[in-house]
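comment on this one:
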Amino acid sequence: MKKALIIVDVQNDFCEGGALAVPEANSIIPYINLLMEENEYDQIVLTQDWHPSNHKSFASNNGKNVGETISLNGVPQFMWPDHCVQGTFGAEFQKDLNRDKVTHIIQKGKNVEIDSYSGFQDNNHFMKTGLEDFLKYHDIQLVEIVGLALDYCVKLTAIDAFNAGFITCLHFNGTKAVNVKPDSARNTIYDLAEKGITILA
């Protein structure tokens, strides 16, 4: 069975000191590096948030405060601080992440009008990123998922992988949550397990 590792958004802005730093984000990087060192993956894919500076998920572009929610093209949109802007240091992959074995990079969130948490498609399910086609072209049957952040981009990437027909596993030690709401991490793990996604401790 061919398998892939999907590493979600391990970028400077989501790590320590970043514009949208996930608590303890840097602590997962040695675990992810060890996974790549000790396992034989047929493909290793990085997803990368890659927003234009005028992206409408940014509070600053809507005259809103971070944490507010608006309706964006019919979908509730949480207002984030500016982050992972194309071509900036914040959008770069964190330097400690070993990229020697990476085979493919998927950029997402490039459409100004709609956010894209999942590595597979935008939040409106209008546009695919090409990740599903890439994995199926390479006959991948099983995907393992790590990265940032558990309760947003990792969660939606895992759900989309499962819905696309891949056997889907999430490494609990390879992810951290934003936890905008208390218990968000715990609730996310319960939700994913209930859908049939395997949680690897």
In short: Residues 150-163 form the longest helix (14 residues). The CA atoms of residues 37 and 95 lie 17 Å apart.
